[in-house]
Amino acid sequence: MAALFSFISVIAAWVMLYWDSFPPLLRRWNTDDYSYCWLVVPLALYVAWQRKDLLPKVITPSPGSGYLTLLLSGVLFFLGKAAAVDALVFASMWLTVVSVVLFVYGWRSMKAFFFPLLVLAFAVPPPPFINRILTFKLRLISSDISVRMMQFIDIPVFREGNVIDLGVIQLHVVDACSGLRYVFPTILLGILMGYWFNSRTWQRVLVVLSTVPTAIFANALRIAIVGYLARNVSVETAESFFHDASGVVIYVLSIIVLATWSLLLNLLASRKPEQRAVSRPGYYGVPTGRALHVFLMAAVLGIYFAGNMYLFTGRVVPQRTSFDNFPLEIGDYIGKKQFYDDKIIESLGSDDYLSGIFRDKRTGREILLMVTYYDYQEPQRAAHNPVSCLLGGGGWSVASSRDLPADPQKGRPFKVRRLLLDKPGQQLLAFYWFQQRGRVITDEYMNKVYLAVDSITQKRTDGALIRVELLLREDESVEQGQQILEDFIKNFSSRLKPYIPE
């Protein structure tokens, strides 16, 4: 009865603590990139049931390790809440499951539980900004391989970054087509195949290592097939295949390739496969203490909940002027505002924004300005590194990225991050900075640190991300373009005070 009461208590406390984190987690699971996460929990439970015979005959709880893991889960939880990084909160969820295993079964049982817990970790989606940076390279690799495939079968094609031009159709290999949608589930598939079909560690490692190349190659094949259909069948058929049926077809191909590779590794093995552990007659252990530790864990989760309510409620939202009233004449520049549709505004998550093109009345040069402002920041609605947004789907790559120190003589008493992006025949110069609660920051990670500190000490998480961009002319140096942006920022930044509170 005590064990049942403790189990119900820890489940109730766990649900109460993470209640407001379930919606963003499920929203991530409902996206195309992470829809496989719905299968992770059932798979982890199934694998745990399969490995029950590996449990030691004597079960010895490990309360010390359990409390240490529980403490770490609390640290990740509060850091995730304070710094608006929901991936840390999701990782905290996973660590609490590890804590329960340690309280009930102990370290000696990790031989049975390590692999199910590893599978369960795939239910935690990584931070979006990490995804965007990592998948840019995948987009370029997929584009390059697919172009080589099409050239091999004599299909005329031109690639500019991740834009593939077939003449009759242009394919933009954006995030959804970069291979990311297949990489994470393919890695999970490789881990499971290695476990189920291969008995030796080196075989399993090779299967897992082959998953990312398999996903990228399969995605490149998908794009090449689209090119073939566009040139030899019809553009409509190609577009239909590209957006509808190709994903399932290519993922099935990945499964076949991995299964074949796994079987080949078994054939190459020179010795008989290792035997799995046989079924044991059962296990026993002294139940004293386990129920108590699980109940104490429920109490600790309750303390975390109370701390969350105390630290992260009663946000302070300072008064400010809306960007609706921002002047469109800045020095020699006349601006024209741009407005986004509801879908883009929802993806930004900002409470206010300013977007527009400012034209120099003397030279005709245009500067793109984008400011997103947040009354408060939390997971899924926070300022993030704009590099991935600037890369977008236009074939740009980062040529250089560095901080420019403050230069009061030029009218810029704060540092900015300078990005130089290029693609064949074009260069884009961009400045950006985080302006938040009286600070100007260029490093995203330091911005998260200050966000966490201020959310606790001031109960404020308001702030803005500002970026300005200039398309360089063919005969224009980076230094000349930089001076143009410096002159614009000198007049622009002095007008921000009413719109971004200090």
UniProtKB/TrEMBL annotation:
Listed transmembrane segments: 33-49, 61-79, 85-105, 112-130, 180-198, 205-228, 248-269, 290-312
Keyword Hydrolase: yes
Keyword Iron-sulfur part of the UniProt annotation: no
InterPro entries: EpsH-like, Exo/Archaeosortase_dom, Exosortase, ExosortD_VPLPA, Methanolan_biosynth_EpsI
Localization (cell): Cell membrane
Molecular function, one GO term: peptidase activity
Pfam families assigned: DUF3485 (PF11984), Exosortase_EpsH (PF09721)
UniProt keyword list: Cell membrane, Hydrolase, Membrane, Protease, Transmembrane, Transmembrane helix
All residue ranges annotated as the Methanolan biosynthesis EpsI domain in the record: 296-499
Membrane topology of the entry: Multi-pass membrane protein
Name of protein: Eight transmembrane protein EpsH
Species for this entry: Maridesulfovibrio salexigens (strain ATCC 14822 / DSM 2638 / NCIMB 8403 / VKM B-1763)
Source species taxonomy: Bacteria, Pseudomonadati, Thermodesulfobacteriota, Desulfovibrionia, Desulfovibrionales
